[in-house]
Amino acid sequence: MVTEVPGPKSTEWFARRTAAIPAGVANLHPIVTARASGAIIEDVDGNRLIDFATGIAVLNVGHSAPEVVAAAQRQLELDTHTCFHVTANEPYIELAERLNALAPIEGPAKTMFANAGAEAVENAVKIARKATGRSAIVAFDHAFHGRTLMGMTLTAKVMPYKQGMGPFAPEVYRLPFAYAYRWPNPERCAEEALAYALDEMHKHIGEDNIAAVIMEPIQGEGGFIVPAPGFVKGIADFCAANGIVFIADEIQSGMGRAGKWFTIVDEGVTPDIVTSAKSLGAGLPISAITGRADLMDAVHVGGLGGTYGGNPVAAAAALAVLDKIETEYLLDAAVRTGETIMSRFRSMQQRFPEIGEVRGRGAMCAMELVADPATKEPLDAARMGAIMTNALREGVVVLTAGTYGNVVRLLPPINIDEALLADGLEVLESSVAAALA
Q1: pLDDT band at 45 (very low <50, low <70, confident <90, very high)
Q2: What whole-number distance in Å separates Cα of residue 213 and Cα of residue 207?
Q3: Cα–Cα distance measured from residue 89 to residue 81, given in angstroms and rounded to the nearest whole number
Q4: Contact (CB, 8 A) for 2 and 44
Q5: What's the Cα-to-Cα distance from 49 to each of 39, 52, 309, 415, rounded to whole Å?
Q6: Could you please report the per-residue DSSP string of 180-225?
Q7: What is the CA angle 246-111-144, rounded to 5?
Q8: pLDDT digits (tens, 9 = 90+) for 211-226
Q9: What are the beta bridge partners of residue 136?
């Protein structure tokens, strides 16, 4: 650390930011990045910080991975954009082939590209509705699916994502998620949540009216909620039995974050459509919708696409991401990183009774903090904010999450250096201790 955080140059830039950019565009940390590499962010004041946020799960392979930078540079020199609808490009087609082979789709698969996770969700819904001729979409409590009209409608949390921005898209229905820590009877969470969901879909929506069920296999913004075992499989089986498209939203959990290319496979489920974004492009804007070929081909010519979808530079970067994960065995690295984090979290839980639950899979790890372990009342915003602020002052970038804002979530690069990870976790523990004192 060279200066206090924020330093004078970041403070100066934030004054300009306030004058130029709407207040609604949030900033969680009052620093301005000058450069970044691996798991390190360097701000405009020269402070070097350990990054446990990675642009909200966008940099599984780390900041400015040399292979990704080189791939993007090569493509920039060849072709920046023609629009795939006008003249196709090689990276788009090759990336589609790669994802078709990697995605846990049964039978032939096809892929289309868009720019962001919310667009991937919008297109997945469009495809499901067109393919089934049905209109209803089912989503879950604590879900986050984006900020576009459909994405915002599917998202569960009102503030800040939806407040005052209605009316929302019609024919969207919400069901409870199998969130065992906050279920009245945690041991029966999967069984009870599933029974309620199936009954609601049968009684109040009607199986023949449901085009798709969309679910995050591990909920991201909701607080890294790992569903009670058996719940996801039960929902997917109901979908398969009733001609309902099961969409796995892997925008945050995919690309190795949870130790697999797609974490839905840990649930023993084969989705009909899977959405990808965030770490797919390692910082370049690209998202993917990969699904059963018969579903993807159900839409008429011209019904899918967009000007920038599958931009060749972003697609070339994504191909380099896939290569890096494969050749460097980063799925295994994610598991090792997660084991280190979870071990530290469990140790912290023994020290701090306010840590009500630690949870996660692979390198997608979180701890939920409560004011009272008995009632599970969420820890207040002031102390949650203090955890982030304390960590930032000591050189570590962390994020909170959760419907109640009381979850600390870690998203370091899945290939983070072990010494950096240990240093960052030490700072985080000290920050938690100071906030709870």
Answers
A1: very high
A2: 11
A3: 9
A4: no
A5: 8, 9, 33, 17
A6: GGGSSSGGGHHHHHHHHHHHHIIIII-GGGEEEEEE-SSBTTTT-B
A7: 45
A8: 999 999 999 999 999 9
A9: 210
109-114: strand order across its sheet: 109-114, 287-292, 273-276, 245-249, 210-215, 136-140, 172-175
**CA-based angle 394:380:432, to the nearest 5?**
30
Cβ neighbours around 76 below 10 Å, total: 12
- Joined together, the tokens standing for residue 275 give 């959405």
CA proximity to 229, closest of 361, 55, 353: 361
Find all residues with CB under 8 Å of 43, minimum gap 6, and list them: 5, 6, 7, 9, 10, 31, 32, 33, 34, 49
- The structure's pTM equals 0.97
Residue ranges in 352-417 assigned as alpha helix (H): 381-393
39-71 burial, b at 16+ Cβ within 10 Å, e below that, comes to bbbbbbbebebbbbbbbebbbbbbbebebbbeb
- Give the CA distances from residue 219 to residues 12, 178, 248, 326, 401, in Å, rounded to whole numbers and listed in that order: 36, 11, 11, 25, 10
Cα dihedral 30, 426, 258, 383 in deg (nearest 10) = -50
Residues 6+ positions from 408 with CB-CB distance below 8 Å: 366, 367, 369, 384, 387, 398, 399, 400, 401, 428, 432
- Rounded mean pLDDT of 142-169? 96
Q: Rounded to whole angstroms, how far apart are CA atoms 423 and 166?
A: 44
pLDDT digits 0-9 by tens, 230-251: 999 999 999 999 999 999 999 9
Round to whole Å and give the CA distance between 409 and 361. Answer: 12
- 109 token code pair: 């698969």
Q: Can you tell me the distance from the alpha carbon of 200 to that of 304, in angstroms, rounded to the nearest whole number?
A: 32
Interatomic CA distance for residues 185 and 195, integer angstroms: 14
Asked whether the CA dihedral 135, 139, 145, 148 is positive or negative, the reply is positive
Task: Read off the tokens for 96.
Answer: 């589609």
Backbone torsion region of residue 113, taken as left when φ is above 0, otherwise alpha when ψ lies between -120 and 50, otherwise beta: beta
Average pLDDT over every residue of 323-332: 98
Which amino acid is residue 147, in one-letter code? R
Quick one: which of 397, 385, 388, 403 has its CA closest to 424? 397
